[in-house]
Amino acid sequence: MKIYSLFVFVLMLAFSCSNKSELSKSFNCETSEIKNDKEYLDFKNNFKLKLPSTWKTNKYYSEFQSEIFSADTTKQLSESFIFDASYNFGNLKLDADYVKKTDSVLRMNNLEKIKSGQILFQNKPALWYVVKGKKNGFPYHQFNLMVENTETTYFSVYSEIYGDKNIEERICESISIIDKIEFLQ
Length: 185
Fold this sequence. Notes:
By secondary structure, the chain is α+β, with helices and mostly antiparallel strands. The protein has one domain (21-183): 3-Layer(aba) Sandwich (Protein Transport Mog1p, Chain A). The protein is 25% helix and 42% strand. It is built from 4 helices and 10 strands, in the order ααβββββαββββαβ. It has helices at 2-17, 22-26, 96-108, 167-178; strands at 37-41, 47-52, 56-61, 65-71, 82-89, 112-121, 124-135, 138-148, 153-162, 182-183.
C-alpha cells in the first residue's frame, strides 16, 4: 500500500509540474496562487479575473472595449506593477504586418523589445512581448499579451513594471493572474 501511495504522489507531482501554461514556461515561472483574491467581471460580461483584494481596481468601458485596470497601491511603484486587461471589439490579425507595425511604434517611443513569442492562449492565437525603456524618468518594463478571440473581438493585457529589481518575478506574478482569466463570450 505504501508503494502505491508513493506512486500516486509522484504521478500527481509530475502532472502538476507539467501543468504550466505556455506563457509560464516562456518565463520559467513557478505557478502560484493569489492570496486574498477578489473576482472581477468586466462591465460587458466578456471576461473575469481574480486580483488581490488589496489592489486598487477600476473598471472602464466604451462601445469599443471593456477594461479592468488595477495596481498594488500598498507598495512603492518600483516594487509593484500596474495591470490592465481589456476585451476589445474590432478585428486583430497577429501576423507579420502587425509585428512590423508594433515594432515601429515601439521604436518611435524609444522602447526596446527584449523578448517575444507566439503561443496559444486558451486555444487561441496569441502574441506576447516584453519591452524596456524609460517612462516619467524611471526605468520601465512592459509585458504585453494580445489574443485573437473571435473574428470581431480580441483581448489585450499588459503590465507596467517600474524600476530594475525583480522584473522576471513581477512578470511571473502578472502571468499567474493572466493564466486564470476566464472568457465568458
